[in-house]
Design brief:
The complex is a heterodimer of chains A (316) and B (337).
Chain A: H1 2-10, H2 12-29, H3 31-34, H4 69-105, H5 107-122, H6 125-136, H7 140-150, H8 153-166, H9 170-177, H10 182-221, H11 229-239, H12 246-274, E1 292-294, E2 297-299
Antiparallel strand pairs in A: 1-2
Chain B: H1 2-28, H2 48-57, H3 68-72, H4 76-79, H5 83-92, H6 106-141, H7 146-160, H8 163-174, H9 194-231, H10 234-241, H11 246-268, H12 270-283, H13 289-299, H14 302-330
The chains are: A mainly alpha (316), B mainly alpha (337).
């Protein structure tokens, strides 16, 4: 454990990502103190202040309602992080539970749950989220639920494939013969071995969730009561492009890139450390690809090919 | 024989998935809060009879799943005369309902737009495949060098870049010397012949490039790891030992084998491509299925939303099925149980 931490701190990629993410987290937490203005305050705008370019008072200029862009940007970090962390946490819990039970108990239950995973994976994500949010309403909770409830399939597969190999190991068989119950074995022996991988995947999932939220918000399906980077871009796209107000358009976009890049860097570094298997070359397997491996760079799969070799371990 | 079984099982799964999507699509748009008829009737002066007539036209006077009353009366066939069976029947007749906003048949709207999205997606994908394969091959060959690191970093960056934001950036950059919105310059009509199609081609440039950049990153990663795996194989060593040039080793031995997974990956990325098309079409007002979906969301035009989603989901499911079959045919190592 200590060795893994040390290894992480020695990785320039991991440290860069961590510092980048910490910065965003600090900004989000201390938003009320950092933001020069409160975006919810009423402003009396003069016509020339609409989309006014940056000056000493407004470092990033003003938006189409005359509000300070920097303050919007700072508050926007909150929505991205809240959606990213909670949705990914949800996916992690569901994916882990399904993966553990499907992998450990296998049989018909395992098969059915994996076929359900295949089903969810084959439906295009963004259109599905779009119709659900359009029908259910675009509250923050709905957005988190949709992203979280649709994002667990990859984790479930990852966990299941790990459990399938772990459960045949000597110490599990020994625990079993000593009379340990199935759930005790799962929680005490199997889960700890799989957990590091799950966490690395969850970090990558945060970036996927943040990108999903921003896409939905850009398409006009963000929470209408909250400022998020995606909804800023939605407004900027509708109103600021013709005015060439780049100070309103570029910052929210680069903020999204910044935070998702930081998470990808952290997730990759974690994966390299906790998943030594990834260093070997067998990983390139388009059927049940555990992760997309790039000489040690592991990327989250935003979509996953359904297993061509369906249920290889179906009987297990 | 085994392959036949494998394909049959895959086919069964695809049919099941299609059925589930249809049921989901039906249920989702039925849990809309409130009476759906209110979305159609705008005037309170409409008489009750007229309202009932509209309700009957849309089949909303029928029960949702079955008619329990008629079942009790012993009319088993009649009991299935429900909104659900009507929906399924209409689907098979290609009737997807009528748009709330434009009053046009949804199936006509889809037919008009589907090719525009197909052209965009195909164009973007082809460029991305060629560029991704070339860059991935170079990166794998020059593994560990600065060039490799640069290509990787670029691929990584494209991963973190939201599609719509890339579109906006390109739109700002190209403003002035390339058309940035719509399908053709207003005033030009298909009857204008070549001039019109050249104009459409110009309007396609930016959306296609955006799509291409977004997907290239992923193909680079797949290709690079594929080639790297192939390069560790013994037959590459043999080829080198035979004295073949680097170029020939790469072209005749590495490329061919690394291509295999690429072939299926191309079809399998379809689901993701569709999500990208929605964003790109929205940014560049390209009047395809994605833009249609965006507009339907803005106007809460549920029949259009429902129809577009169904078409997109069905295409992706079929593409996946074909990819899996193709893979099992191409790769003899895939041993269907």
């Amino acid at each position: 454990m200590a060795a893994a931490v040390k290894q992480y701190f020695r990785s320039p990629m991991g440290m860069t990502g961590l510092v980048m993410l910490l910065l965003v987290v600090l900004v989000a937490v201390f938003a009320p103190w950092l933001a020069p203005y409160n975006p919810k305050d009423m402003v009396h705008v003069q016509p020339e202040e609409i989309l006014a370019p940056p000056d000493g008072q407004h470092w990033l200029g003003r938006d189409d309602a005359g509000k300070d862009v920097l303050s919007l940007l700072i508050y926007g970090a909150r929505v991205s992080l809240v959606v990213g962390f909670t949705a990914s946490f949800m996916s992690m819990i569901i994916g882990t539970t399904v993966g553990l039970t499907a992998g450990y108990f296998g049989g018909r239950f395992g098969n059915i749950s994996m076929r359900f995973v295949d089903f969810l994976m084959v439906i295009p994500d963004l259109p599905l989220m779009l119709v659900i949010i359009a029908v259910m309403g675009r509250g923050l909770l709905n957005i988190i639920l949709v992203i979280g409830l649709l994002g667990w399939t990859y984790t479930a597969r990852l966990v299941r494939s790990q459990v399938l190999s772990v459960k045949e190991r000597q110490f599990v068989l020994r625990a079993h013969s000593l009379g340990a119950s199935d759930w005790r074995i799962i929680l005490r022996h199997v889960l700890p071995l799989v957990l590091p991988l799950i966490i690395a995947q969850a970090v990558l999932d945060i970036s996927v969730a943040i990108l999903a939220e921003s896409s939905l918000a850009f398409l006009g399906l963000g929470d209408p009561t909250l400022i998020s980077w995606g909804s800023m871009l939605n407004f900027a796209f509708e109103r600021a492009i013709s005015r060439q107000a780049w100070w309103f358009i570029l910052p929210p976009g680069f903020a999204i890139v910044w935070v998702s890049l930081s998470l990808i860097l952290i997730g990759n570094t974690l994966d390299q450390i906790v998943n030594p298997r990834l260093r070997s070359h067998h990983l390139f397997d388009p059927r049940g690809m555990v992760a997309l491996v790039v000489g040690g760079l592991v990327l989250p799969r935003r979509h996953e090919p359904a297993e061509a070799e369906q249920g290889r371990e179906a009987g297990a | 024989m085994e392959r036949g079984n494998f394909i049959l099982r895959k086919l069964g799964f695809a049919v099941l998935t299609l059925g589930a999507v249809m049921v989901f699509n039906f249920v989702l748009f039925r849990i809309l809060p409130g009476d759906p008829i209110k979305l159609i009737i705008h005037s309170p002066r409409m008489t009750r009879e007229a309202q009932e007539r509209i309700r009957a036209n849309f089949g909303l006077d029928k029960p949702v799943w079955f008619d329990v009353e008629r079942l009790k009366e012993g009319d088993i066939l009649g009991a299935f005369d429900s909104q659900f069976t009507a929906y399924i029947r209409n689907l098979f007749r290609g009737d997807l309902g009528v748009s709330f906003a434009t009053r046009k048949d949804v199936s006509d709207l889809l037919k008009e737009r589907v090719w525009r999205t197909v052209v965009l997606v195909m164009g973007g994908d082809v460029i991305a495949i060629v560029a991704g394969m070339a860059l991935g091959l170079i990166a794998a060959w020059k593994r560990g060098t600065r060039l490799d690191a640069g290509i990787l970093l670029g691929a990584l960056f494209s991963w973190a870049l939201p599609t719509f934001f890339l579109g906006i950036i390109l739109l700002i950059l190209a403003r002035g010397w390339l058309p940035v919105g719509g399908m053709a310059t207003p005033g030009l009509k298909p009857e204008d012949g070549l001039e019109y199609w050249l104009d459409v081609g110009k309007h396609l440039i930016l959306p296609t490039i955006t799509m291409a950049i977004v997907f290239t990153g992923e193909y680079i990663l797949i290709m690079r790891s594929g080639v790297m795996e192939v390069l560790t194989q013994d037959y590459i060593l043999t080829a080198k030992a035979k004295g073949l040039s680097t170029f020939r080793v790469l072209r005749d031995h590495a490329l061919k084998n690394a291509m295999l997974p690429m072939v299926t990956m191309i079809a399998l990325t379809f689901g993701y491509t569709v999500g990208g098309a929605i964003q790109v079409e929205t940014v560049f007002s390209w009047p395809g299925l994605g833009r249609l979906m965006y507009e339907a969301v803005q106007k809460r035009d549920y029949p259009v939303l429902q129809g577009t989603f169904l078409l997109l989901a069905v295409s992706v499911i079929i593409a996946n099925l074909l990819a899996e079959i193709l893979y099992s045919v191409l790769d003899p190592r895939v041993q269907p149980e």
